[in-house]
Amino acid sequence: MPFNTNCPGCGSLGPCGCSGDQCNFVSSDNVKYIGPNLSGTGIQGCDDLTTVLQKIDYAIALIEAQISPTPSTTTTTTTTTAVINCGTTSSLSGGASYPTTQSVVLSSATGTVVLNYNAQSVPDRFIVDWNSSVVIDTGYRGSAAYDFGGGSRSSFTNSLTGLIDPITLTPYPNFSTYPDDGYPRIVGIGLGTTSFVKNLATNAFAIIKVYAPMSSTVWSYTLNCPTTTTTTTTLLV
Fold first, then answer.
1. pTM
2. Which of 16, 106, 221, 237 lies 20 to 30 Å from 55, alpha-carbon distance?
3. What pLDDT is stored for residue 3 in this prediction?
4. In angstroms, rounded to a whole number, what is the distance separating the alpha carbons of residues 50 and 41?
């Protein structure tokens, strides 16, 4: 695996451009990988030595888990709840659920379907399927403390380790999709609104899945009924 080093003040002798004992103490930040991107591990050109070793360690651990699976320390529950009508609020408080799945009756009406969601602080992800396609994916929403570099990041990533990403269908950690540390980023605050357009009278049901990997989660959502926007034109005479 080709590396290049930056050794300030060193001579031109030796494989790294330094001589004698002058390179005995080199910070790992100054040792850079200069080979091609390695998608299987997530290693990319210019990664420093520490990052490369961490990614190799993750990759080995994942391979070992696939060859000799051990019981998961993460306990999650898949929950299917009763069908509800559009405009009805659904909620959950406490207990990991990966995912909670619910069918929502949208009727034969067409128009814009608005999803109001609230993951509060503990991260949750809301995905809506309609007409056999994903029409909404909020990504994980919640407190920035659970984002990459945040103080609560490890508790979030630990809850996802070994679970399957619902879109890529690959287990976490997945450096190909999430190069920072192998896990999804927190893409926004818990409270939000998004929408899709239901342009068919058929397929009157939508399916919403809430991915809540942490046991302390609290979330709610309302998938509203389709509405059309009408415009009024005033003629001046």
1. 0.66
2. 16
3. 54
4. 14
